[in-house]
Structures are given as structure tokens and as C-alpha cells.
Task: structure prediction
Amino acid sequence: MHEGEYAPSKARLSVESYYDDHGRDIKYKEAICILCGLCVKNCPKEAITMTDKIAVDHEKCIGCKTCLKVCPTKAVRYNEKGKSVICDTCDGAPICVEICPHSALSYK
Ligand code: SF4
Ligand code: SF4
Result:
């Protein structure tokens, strides 16, 4: 809970919904970081670092959205200050998985 409150609008994880090929059944796909490193390489301010997780230095981020454009999984979101935010899986123990009231999330 990086933001200190339960607020879906501030969640770093997002889930996209779409219809199957027949346009009938709705499907869901998570937008999560796969540690490809493209945002790190392309950030003009060197604001993103990657170890076993991704981290954004908000002192350096200028909100240019280059990371959003290059991310293959649409894992980048922006906070209310226009700074890039990326799910870091809460260091491997995602709290969203723990607290989801419908047990709709899992992490492997
Ligand atoms: S939005 Fe911020 S983190 Fe993303 S590429 Fe631009 S400066 Fe870097
Ligand atoms: S946020 Fe996107 S571009 Fe950056 S490392 Fe993760 S998957 Fe790659």
C-alpha cells in the first residue's frame, strides 16, 4: 500500500477488460511489469532503476510519458502529480492479492 490508503484510482496494478474473438465473453488481463528494461533505457532523465524490481525516482521524473509509450505491457501509470508509477509487486508480497475481498488476484 504505497499510497497509504485504499484507493483503486491510485492502484499501480491495472486490469484491462476485453471481449473474446466472438465478442461474447469478457476477459481480463493484468498490466504488470515484466522487467524488460525498456523504460530504463529510454527515460531521458535516468529516473527509473531496475534491480529485481522497478523503481522511479520522482525527484528526477518530469512526466514526459516516454516510459508509457515504450512499455510493452502497459504497466506504467501516472499519479496525480504527473509522475510515473510502476507496480513493484510490494517486494514480492503484493498487498492487493492479500486484501482483495473476492480473492480475484493471485501472484506466482
Ligand atoms: S515519465 Fe518520468 S520516468 Fe517516465 S520516461 Fe519520462 S521522466 Fe522518465
Ligand atoms: S515498466 Fe514496462 S517498460 Fe518498464 S521494465 Fe516494466 S515492462 Fe518493461
Observations:
- The beta strands are 14-19, 26-31, 48-50, 54-56, 76-78, 84-86.
